[in-house]
Write a structure and sequence with these properties.
Elements: E1 4-9, E2 12-17, H1 28-41, E3 48-53, E4 58-60, H2 65-68, H3 74-92, E5 98-102, E6 105-107, H4 109-116, E7 119-123, E8 127-129, H5 143-150, H6 153-162, E9 166-167, H7 168-174, E10 179-181, H8 185-193, H9 201-217, H10 220-235, H11 238-249
Parallel strand pairs: 2-3, 3-5, 4-6, 5-7, 6-8, 7-10
Antiparallel strand pairs: 1-2, 8-9
The protein binds ligand LP2KCY5N.
Ligand LP2KCY5N binds near residues 68, 105, 108, 140 and 141.
Length: about 250
């Protein structure tokens, strides 16, 4: 089965992580897919991009631990973290509106991926959190830096440091998600963007640039690079490998 699906719905590019049995964990193949989707979303006929996951259990459970666990040293981890952080930067700085539709749990890197989008909506009852701390690492794809820009200081720091999944009412309250939905995820995403789709692409892009200028002024890319480097160091430590082993041995 293809690990991702790319579809076009009347000017909306929809990317679905299609690894339901692995809770939509991000493998290198999913990274290939995200890179392809970003390129396709750049086409003139596309007004906005949506990212979601297959099924109802998970939006994305972060990096594929069974595969990335092979990366033992800081240097090995850096390559993977850097590649995915480049993808997050492309989504963050994408010149058109982007939305993450959290069809299910979003944890670890899944929460980072969602943070890179302009908007996040969630199915009622899901949970989302930066649980990286429980694996003795920090965010490493740029998500910590991104969330520090998008949420109030105390909310962002609390969410990162607590390292627990939050319920939808808490996610709404801190502003991590903008609304909740019931039913089909793609329909919910389309409904959220409905009014945007009637506006000229150039107008949407011009507004997006206003927000991007602020991020550039705040040296976002330089700060994301520092996050990648810091996480790589922690990744190489025994404490991290011990926690990942615990998760993998639960099988
Ligand atoms: C690597 C980058 C780093 C970053 O920079 O941010 C990270 O992303 S670190 C964070 C990595 N993610 C996690 O630690 C989450 C791990 N997963 C879970 O906690 C749970 O699976 C879940 C997401 C809360 C869902 O729980 P549940 O519905 O009970 O499912 P299972 O736990 O039984 O899992 C089913 C199936 O999926 C496999 N799985 C789940 N997550 C991952 C993952 N991240 N990588 C690889 N595989 C994953 C799990 O092993 C099960 O597989 P099988 O036993 O083969 O059925």
């Amino acid at each position: 089965m293809n690990p991702y699906i790319i579809e076009e719905h009347e000017g909306l590019l929809v990317f679905t992580i299609n690894r339901e049995d692995k809770r939509n964990a991000i493998s290198y193949e999913v990274m290939d897919g995200l890179e392809e989707a970003i390129t396709l979303a750049g086409e003139k006929k596309i007004k906005a991009m949506m990212i979601t996951g297959a099924g109802e259990k998970a939006f994305c459970s972060g990096g594929d631990l069974s595969s990335f666990h092979e990366l033992k040293t800081a240097k090995e981890a850096y390559k993977m973290l850097k590649r995915m952080s480049n993808i997050l930067v492309k989504i963050l700085l994408f010149p058109k509106p982007t939305i993450a539709v959290l069809n299910g749990t979003a944890v670890g890197g899944g929460c980072e991926l969602a943070s890179a989008c302009d908007f996040r909506i969630a199915r009622k009852g899901i949970k989302a959190g930066f649980i990286q701390g429980t694996l003795a690492i920090t965010t490493g794809w740029g998500g910590g830096t991104i969330v520090s820009e998008k949420l109030a200081h105390a909310h962002a720091m609390k969410m990162l440091m607590e390292a627990v999944p939050y319920k939808t009412d808490e996610l709404l309250q801190i502003g991590f998600i903008q609304s909740t939905y019931e039913g089909d995820s793609i329909t919910a995403g389309k409904l959220f963007l409905h009014k945007f789709m009637g506006i000229e692409t150039e107008v949407l892009s011009s507004y997006k640039q206003m927000f991007l200028r602020k991020l550039e002024q705040n040296r976002i890319e330089e700060r994301i690079q520092a996050e990648v480097e810091q996480c790589s160091i922690l990744w190489g430590e025994e404490a991290h490998h011990k926690q990942v082993n615990k998760f993998l041995q639960k099988k």
